Fold each of these.
Amino acid sequence: MKEQSKIPTSKVRRASKLIGTGAKVGGNYVKYFANKAIGDKKAKEKLDQENAADIYQSLSELKGSALKMAQVISMDKNMLPKAMTGKFAQAQYSAPPLSYPLVVKTFRQMFGKTPTELFDFFEKEAKNAASIGQVHFATQGDLKLAVKVQYPGVADSVKSDLNLVKPIAMRMLHMKEKEIKQYIQEIEGKLLEETDYILELKQSMEIVEACSSLDGIYFPKYYPEFSNKRIITMDWIEGMHLKDFLATNPSQEIRNRAGQRMWDFYDYQVNELNLIHADPHPGNFLFQADGNLGVIDFGCVKRIPKEFYSVYFQLLNPFYHAEDERLRALYYKLEFLLESDDKETEELFFNLFKDSMELLVHPFTNETFDFADEAYFDRIYKKGEELTKNKEIRKGGKARGSRHILFINRTYFGLFSILHELKAEIKTTTSFKLD
C-alpha cells in the first residue's frame, strides 16, 4: 500500500482539500450525465465507484476526525451506496499508512530516540492503519509488541474539522447551532479523548483488569514505559479481523460462540461497570478460530452517568411499554419529548420514538435472538429511510434526546451490525436490574 509522507494540518489546507474533492465529485457527475445520455446502463455504478474513490482518497490523506467519519459511516450499510461503504470500510484498519521517516520523527519528539534505539526490533512498514494512528510490530526481549503511533497534527485538527462539518450537519438536520451544540460537544470530547494516548492507556488497563474474568475474551497487556501521549505499546495478540474470519467459513457453532462473547462483553461493561467500549467497528476485534474474541483499542470509552443509566435502560422494561403514559413520562426524562412541545408535536414524536425504540430493544425482549434475521434489519433500514423523508419531523425543528444517548446508540448499532455479519444466534439476556 502506498505510504503517505505528509498530512495537511492547518485549517486552510484541510478545507482546501475538501473543496478540491468537491470539485472532483462535480466532475464525476458531469461524466455520469454524459454516460447516461448515451444509454450507459452502468453509469450510476461508475459514478458511485468514482465518487467513493475520490472522497476516500481525500479523507484518508486528511486522517483524524475526517477519516473517523468515514469509519463510522462504513458501519451503516444503508446510509450510502455500496461502493462508498465498501471503500470507507478500509478506514477501520487498512487506511494508507504514514511513511517511516514521519514515524521516526514522532519517536524522537516523544522519547528522544528512534524506534530501533528503543526496541530490539521495529518493523518499518505498518501492519494496520486506521483514522487516528497506525500499528507497527516490534519486539523487546521475548515480548512481541504492537506499537500504535498517532498521526501528526490529528489532535490539533479535531475542532477545526468539526467546524467544517457543523454547517453541513445543520443543513441536513434543519437545525440551528444552539440546538445541536450539546451533541457537537459530545462528539468533540470523544474525538479529543481518542487522541489522548495517556488517557487511553489508563482506560485500557482499567477495563482489562475489570473484564479479566469474562469467559473467552482476551486482551493485550499494556506497557506504560513504552507509551506516552502520542505512542502506546501493548502485547501483540493473534487473531483475525472479521472479514478474514468469515472467509475461513466458520461453523454456525463458532459464529454463535464469537457473537455470544461479544454480547456478554458489552452487557458486562454497561451493567457492571457503567461504561462502554464505544467504538465497535470490526477493526477493534480479533477473532480466533475457536470463536474466542480479542478486544483492542479503548480510546473511545463512554462513561454512563448512574442517573442516566437508571432511566435509559428502563426502555428494556416491559412495565413501561405496557402503558403509554408511563412510557411518555420516561420519554420526557430522556428528552425525547420537550416541555415546549404542543399536543400535536408531542404525539408525533411520542409515536416516532415508540416505534423506533421498540425496534431497537427487540433483541433484548427475547431469551435468544438470531441476528441473521434479514427481516429485522430490513425493518431498521426502512425505518431509517422513513425518518429521513418525514417532513413533519423537520418541522419539529429541535434536537431531541440526551447527549448521552449519542454514543450508546451508536455502540449498539455497531454491535448489532457485527452480529448480523456473523449471522450469530445468541442468548440476549441482560444483567440490567428492572424496577
Amino acid sequence: MKGNPMEMNDMVMLSIDDHVVEPLDMFEKHFPKSMMSDAPKLTAHPMNPDLQAWVFQGLPIGNMGLNAVASWPKEEWGMDATDHSEIRPGVYDMDLRVRDMDANGVLASMMFGSFTGFAGTHLANLPDKRLALAAFQAHNDWVVGENPSNHPGRFIPMGMIPFYDMDESVKEIHRLAAMGCRSISLPETPYGVGYPDFRSGHWDPVFKALCDTNMVASLHIGGGFGLIQRPAQMDFTDMSSFFADDLIILAALVSTVTATDVMLSGVLKRFPDTKIAMSEGGLGWVPPWLDRMDRHMTNHAWTHLDSLPAGMTPTEVWRKNFLACYITEPSALNNRKRIGIENIAWECDFPHSDSTWPLSPETLWEELQDTDCTDKEIDLITHENVARFFDWDPFTHIPKEQATVGALRARATDVDVSETSKAEYRRRYELAHA
C-alpha cells in the first residue's frame, strides 16, 4: 500500500460481532412486574458459592471464562466459570463499554448475549415457555431499546426470538422492527440444538418476517459445535484433554455446513431477499466452497438440485444474500475478489478470547496493507458493507470526522487497557459494592 493516502487513524470501524455479559439490572428493569418473582436472578452459584450465576427456572447459568477474557493475563484464560466481579467492567457496564470501544477506535458494535445463548438457545430450552418468552422480550427491550437509546450511534440493535414458537417469533420480529432493530440472531444449525432444519419449512415464517422488515439473520458460530465429532476420550470438562484446542480451531469451519444448509434449504428461492450474516464465520473457507458449489450445479445436474432462485449460480446468490464476517485472517484477504469485496465485514469479538481488542486497528491495518487493499476496499471492509447490508447509517448521530479510529482514541487516552488479573478486578468490584 505504498503511497496510499489513507492512514490507520482514518479508518471507520464497525464491529458486527461482539458480546455482552448481561448487566446486573437488566431483568430488574425489563422483566414484567407481575412476574418479577420468577425473573432471572444473580445469586450464589449452587456448585461454586464463591461465584454468582443467573438462576432462572431453577437452573443456574454461569459465565465461562473464555467469554470475558479482555485484559486478563493469558495464563488466567480458561473454560472455568467466572462472574461479574472478575471481569473487565466494560463487559457488562455499557457506559464503560463505549469507553473501551473508543480506546479501540471502534465506532459501533452489535452484541450477542451470554446468559441467553447467542441466539437465545439457553432460554429456548427451558421448560416454562411463558417465562422464557418474558426473558426474551426483557433482553430485547434492553439490547434493542434501552442501550442504543442511551448511546446513540454506538450500537447496532440486534434481537432474539422465541424460536420454539413461530407465531410469537413473528410477532417479536415486527415489534423489534418498530423499535429500530436491524438484525435477529438465529441458531446457525438449528438441528444442532434440537430444532428442525431450515429446509423443513419450520423457519419460513421467520424468514418471511425478516424480509418484510428488511432485517438480517445473523448466524453466529456456536449452535453447530455439537456437530464437531472428536475422539471419544476427549472431555469438554477436562482441560488436560485436547478438546478445547480442537473446538477453538475447528469452530469456524462449521460455517461451511451452515452456508451449505442455507443454500440447499430452498429458503433463498422462497424468500430471495433474505440476508444472512455469517457471524464469526471467517473468510478462508469461502472460495473453495463456492468453487465446489458452482461446479456441483453443473457437474451433478443429475441430482436436479432446485434450491436457488431461477437462473442464479451459487456464487451469484452468495454475492446477493450473504455477508462473511471475520476477526483476523492474514491470508484470506488475498482472495477478496473471489469472496466478493462487498461481502466482507470486519468484527472485533470483544470480550471473547479471539478478540483483537485493544489493538484491533493495528491488527486490521497490517493485514490490509499486506494484501494491498485500496482505500475503497478498506472502507468497504471496515464499515460500508455493514452500513449497506444492515441498512444502518453510522453517521446519523456522529459525524464521520468524529467517528474515525484517531478521533475516538483521542478522547479515550485515560482508559486503562493494561493487563489486569481476575484478583485485581475482584478487589475493585468488592470495594465498589461494599
Amino acid sequence: MNHAFLRSYKLKKKDMMKRIQVITMMTMALLMVGGLTAKAQVNPNSGQQQSIEVSDSELQTFAKIMQKVQQEQKNSQGKMLKAIKDNGMEVQRYQEIARAQRQGQDVEMTEKEEKAYQAIQQVMKQEQQKMNQKMQSILQQHQMERRRYIQISRALQRDKELQKRLQELRSN
C-alpha cells in the first residue's frame, strides 16, 4: 500500500475530526448564547456523563443540520469581521478588549477604540440573534429539537465512536 496515501488519509481524517469538534464547539456556544441550553445527564454513581443512543438516521439529520449551520456561521463570521474592520479596529485588538471585558478586567482604550468597540458589539449582538434565529429555523426544518441537538453535540465531544460514525456519514 502507498505509505504517502495512508499518511495523507490519516491527516485528512484527523483534520476532519478537528473540524467536527470545532463546529460542535461553535454550535454549542451559539446555542448557549440563546439561553436554551440543556443540562447534561450525569450518573450520580460515577460522576461521568452518560452516553446517549443516536440512530443512524438521527445522526444523518444532525450532519445535515451541522452542515447548514456551518455555512451560516461562516457568513455571520464574515459580517462580524467586516464590522471590526469597518470600525477601524484590528481583529486582534478587538479580541483583546472583548476577552478582558468577559473576564471583568479593566482594559485601557482610547475614546476612538471605545466608540468602535461599542459599535462592533451592537453588530455582534445582532448577528448572534440572527444566527440563533437561523439555527432555530434549521432545526425546525429538520424536525430536531434544540435540546436533542445539544445532547448529540455534547456526546460528539467525548464519544470517539460517535465521531467516527458521523465522519463516515459525512464522507459518503
